[in-house]
C-alpha cells in the first residue's frame, strides 16, 4: 500500500504523530466494525457473520498472500500456530455471541482486561518475574472486572461469562503471539481470518438466512474494515514506539459507548463505567511499569 509506505519518509516527530493518528484511526475502525457486527447478528447468525466477514477480508488479502506465499511454507512451530488460530477464532466468536445479548460497552470492558490477564498468566505459566506493584495492579484490575460483571445470583448471566471467556482466550492468544514474533504479519493476519472462515462455514450451514443486498454490503464492509484496521496498527507500530501509541487502544471503550448509544440506544450502567475505568487504570499502570522495566512488547491486537 503506497500510502502507508510514504508515511515512513516522515521525520521523527511527524512519524510519531502519524503513528498516533493511525492507531486512533485503527481503534475507531475496529469499534465501527464491532458495531456493524452487533447490528448484523440481530438478524443473521454469528456463524454467517464470521463466514461472510472472513470472505471479504481474505479476498482483500489474497494479492498480498500470493505475493508473500513463501512465508506460509515454513512457519515456526506449526502446532502453536494452530493453537493461536483456534484461540483467535474462539475469541471472535465469543465476542459476537456476547454482543447479541449485551451492550457493546459491556463486552469491550471485559476484553480490555486482556493485558491484565496476560501479565497474571505470564507470572503463572511462563514464570516471568512480576513484582508486588504489578500484582497489586492485577488485583485491582480483577476488582474492576468484578464490578463490571456485577456477580450475584440475579445479575450474572451466561453471555457475560461467554464474554469473559472470550477475554481469557484473547489474553492467551496475546501470550502465544509473544513467542511467535518471527512469524510474518501477513501469516498472522490471514490465518486468523482463515480460522473464522472455517468456523463460520460450519456454523452457518446449520442456520443460513439469505442476506439482502444491503446486508451483503455491510458484511463485506466489516471484513474490509478489519483488514484496513490491522494494516493501520502495523504501520503505526513501525512509525512510532509502542510506548507512544499503545495506550490509545483504550479509546475503544469511548467508541463502544458512543456507537452503543447512537445505534442501539444502550446507556452504560454506572457499574460498567466504574469497572472500565478501574480496568483501564490498572492496565495502563501495568503497561507503564513494563515499559520502565524494558519489557514492553508491541502486541497490539484489538479484540475482534
Question: Notable features of this structure?
Answer:
mainly alpha; 304 residues; 75% helix; globular
Q: Mind describing the biggest β-sheet?
A: none
Helix content: over 70%
User: Would you list the SSEs in sequence order as H and E?
Assistant: HHHHHHHHHHHHH
Please work out how many helical segments DSSP would assign. Answer: 13
Global shape = globular
- What's the average pLDDT? 84
Protein model, in words:
There is one protein chain. The chain is globular, with a radius of gyration of 19 Å. 44% of the residues are buried. The protein contains 13 helices and no strands. The longest helix is centred in the N-terminal third of the chain and has 29 residues, at 12-40. It has 304 residues and is mainly alpha-helical.
Quick gist of this model?
With 304 residues, the chain is mostly helical.
Question: Any chance you could write out the topology, listing elements then pairs?
Answer:
Elements: H1 2-7, H2 12-40, H3 46-67, H4 78-101, H5 104-111, H6 114-125, H7 132-149, H8 158-178, H9 185-204, H10 213-239, H11 242-245, H12 252-264, H13 270-292
Helix pairs in contact: 2-10, 2-12, 3-9, 3-10, 4-8, 4-9, 5-8, 5-12, 5-13, 6-7, 6-8, 7-13
